[in-house]
Structures are given as structure tokens and as C-alpha cells.
Design a protein that fits this description.
The chain folds into two domains: 143 residues, 2-keto-3-deoxy-galactonokinase, substrate binding domain (Nucleotidyltransferase, domain 5); 124 residues, 2-Layer Sandwich (Nucleotidyltransferase, domain 5), CATH 3.30.420.310. It is 40% helix and 22% strand. The protein contains ten helices and 16 strands. The strands form four sheets. Strands 4-3-2-6-9-8 form a six-stranded mixed β-sheet, with helices on both faces. Strands 7-14-13-12-15-16 form a six-stranded mixed β-sheet, covered by helices on one side. β12 and β13 form a beta hairpin. The protein is globular. The relative contact order is 0.13.
């Protein structure tokens, strides 16, 4: 089997509430060599530990799953992974994770230099040393993982210093991270993605909306989306949501177009306060489909000159690059 060195590669793990992603990441070339993806998120691992009534710590259950994932990744690549550092960000440092770590506070440097981290032993289950990265919190909000993504984003784009930049990270819990003078000074969480999923699959509106079969977004879809954004600017979200039902019953929109109309209502509601009169620059980091919708909303709001949409490749590698940056700063285990 081929063997990589600790200085040329590491194992990047983004462990969310409902998802698991383990990458063999080439630091030198900034590329993913192979990855292992599953829905074995922290919530599932923690629930299994609780049901087992085991006297061992939750960390043991996490390590056992990591061992399985490492074995699959090693077989897939033909590369020896046993002594390679693993860096984990996301929910693994939460109360349902491997080990709960305290949050860092604001202001927080965008290169992750003030991150709260902890080296964890493999407990003889795996030979790898594990660097666990915690999140950032304010009095009213918190995040785990997005601060690491941001460290990767700014490393890759080498963006010129602007007076104020708001980084938009869409997702289940969309984050708006405000940066000035290379410091995170504020951030806000919007449950846009989670609310969209609930409305799409449960309740009254589920029967009025159908997800498209392809990711193609053309004229009719954009028009319906903009209609939703416009409505979001005019009225309250709770009132607007019933209009999705009306457009279905009166056949104003097909169920697929209603999907984009609903997207516009929610994304418009998310952006209308953040963008209200702001002179900040906005940088969107997302997959292509979702990023296209957010970018289109900014253009509709007349802010095309203030927004940058990052590429799919930058989005895909942001967490791993950020972990690599933080690993170099906290590399105390040889």
C-alpha cells in the first residue's frame, strides 16, 4: 500500500448532526484524494450510545465508527492511514459529540488562531491522533463548523481586505458571518433550510410543492423565485406562506414552480433584514444550485455589485482547507 506523510496529507472529518464526511486530503495540492460519506451523524451515534446503556464514554462509540470508516477509505485508496492525523470539526465537539468543548468568543480571527481545540487519543481503537475543533458563540447565537469553513474560504480566495464583508453560508441553518479587519465580529443564524424541509415534506404545504427532477434553473423558475423574494420584502413570512397554498389551488403555479416560489419566500425573508441599506460586501459559499438562488436574490435586490458567488470547488474544499490551517497552528502532537 502507498503511504503518505503527515506533512503532505491528513484526514479531514466534517461530522454534523445528521451527516458524516471523511476525506483523505492532500495539503500540498489542496485536493481531496478520496472520501467516505454517510448519514451517520452525531445524533445517531449518540442515540446508539444511550440505547446501549454502556458504561464507556460516548467517545468510544465515535472511535469505533471512525475505525470502520478509516478501513473503508484505506481499502478504497490503497493507502495506509493508520498514523495520519484526523481533524474533526462540526458537532463532534458538542454535548452529543465525542467530547464537549467550550465555545470560543468574539471577536474571532478568521484564520482560526483563537479556536478552542483538543487533541484526543485513539484509545487503542485507532492509532491516529485526533484534533477536535470547537465552535464560536455569542450571547444569542452559536456555530460549530462554519468558523472552520471560513478559515478555508479566506485562505483560498485571498480576498482583499474590505471594510466589512458578510459571508453567507446557506444550508440547514444558514449563517451570516460579519468580518471586519480579519476578525469575525458578529454572526446570525437563519433556520431557512430546516424550515424549507419541514414545509416541503410535512403539513399543509407539502401537497402544494414538488421538488424539481433536475437542478436546472431557467426563466420560469427564476421568475417564480423572484416573485417569492418580492413577496417576502412586502409582507410577513407567516402570512406569505399561505400564498403557496393559494397559488396551487388556483393553478397560478405548477407544484414545481411553487417549489421555487417557496424558496424565494424563505430566502427573501432571510436576506431582507441583513441587506436592508447595508454597504457591506457579501460573499456566498454554497453548492451551485443553492448558491445560484442566493445570488439571484441579491441581483433582484439590486446588490449585484456587492456580492461574490464562490465556485463549487471552493465550497467543497472549504472545511478541509480550514482544518489544515488550524492543524498547522495547533500541531503539538508528533
Amino acid at each position: 500500500m502507498q503511504q503518505l506523510t503527515k506533512t503532505s496529507a491528513f484526514l479531514s472529518c466534517d461530522w454534523g448532526t445528521t451527516s458524516f464526511r471523511l476525506k483523505l486530503f492532500d495539503i500540498v495540492h489542496g485536493i481531496t484524494l478520496a472520501e467516505e460519506i454517510s448519514d451517520k451523524g452525531c445524533a445517531g451515534i449518540f442515540n446508539e450510545w444511550q440505547k446501549s446503556r454502556s458504561k464507556t464514554s460516548p467517545a468510544i462509540h465515535y472511535l469505533l465508527y471512525l475505525k470502520e470508516a478509516l478501513s473503508r477509505l484505506s481499502q478504497k485508496t490503497g493507502i495506509v492511514l493508520e498514523n495520519m492525523d484526523i481533524v474533526i470539526s462540526g458537532m463532534a465537539s458538542s454535548s452529543i459529540g465525542m467530547r464537549e468543548l467550550p465555545y470560543a468568543s468574539l471577536p474571532f480571527p478568521i484564520d482560526g488562531a483563537a479556536a478552542v481545540t483538543n487533541w484526543i487519543s485513539g484509545e487503542e481503537i485507532i492509532l491516529n491522533n485526533i484534533l477536535l475543533i470547537s465552535g464560536v458563540a455569542t450571547h444569542n447565537d452559536l456555530m460549530r463548523g462554519e468558523e472552520t469553513q471560513l478559515a478555508g474560504i479566506v485562505k483560498m480566495i485571498k480576498e482583499e481586505t474590505k471594510e466589512e464583508t458578510i459571508y453567507i453560508l446557506p444550508g440547514t441553518h444558514s449563517k451570516h458571518i460579519t468580518v471586519t479587519n480579519k476578525q469575525i465580529v458578529d454572526f446570525k443564524t437563519f433556520m431557512t433550510g430546516e424550515l424549507f424541509g419541514l414545509l416541503l415534506h410535512h403539513g399543509l404545504l407539502a401537497g402544494a410543492v414538488t421538488a424539481p427532477e433536475s437542478n436546472r434553473i431557467e426563466g420560469k423558475e427564476i421568475t417564480a423565485f423572484h416573485c417569492g423574494v418580492k413577496k417576502a420584502l412586502e409582507d410577513d413570512l407567516l402570512q406569505n406562506l399561505f400564498s403557496v397554498r393559494v397559488k396551487d389551488l388556483k393553478k397560478y403555479y405548477s407544484k414545481t414552480l411553487n417549489y421555487f416560489y417557496l424558496s424565494g419566500l424563505l430566502i427573501g425573508a432571510e436576506l431582507k433584514h441583513t441587506c436592508n441599506g447595508s454597504k457591506a460586501h457579501y460573499t456566498i459559499c454554497s453548492d451551485h444550485t443553492l448558491g445560484t438562488l442566493y445570488y439571484s436574490a441579491f441581483r433582484y435586490l439590486g446588490l449585484a455589485g456587492q456580492v461574490t458567488l464562490l465556485t463549487d470547488e471552493l465550497h467543497a474544499n472549504a472545511a478541509a482547507i480550514g482544518q489544515a490551517v488550524i492543524l498547522q497552528k495547533f500541531k503539538t502532537v508528533n
